[in-house]
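User: Could you check the structure of this?
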Amino acid sequence: SILADTVRARVLAFVGGASRAMGLIALLLGGTLNATVGPRGAYVVAGVAGLVAVAVAAVRLRPHLRAGAPP
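Assistant: Sure, the predicted structure tokens are below.
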């Protein structure tokens, strides 16, 4: 494992809390977007944001994947 046993519980707690917080934020932003630009516009914005996130992750992970090092 890349995490020490003493740190693993804190990391998992943080990831769980962040996941719940992002769910609440997504509901608020999605509702606001839906009220502002309608359902179709909200889907377009969410889709574009997802594509941008994938592109950024691919660019940032490329050096690690080529070198064979763990991310």
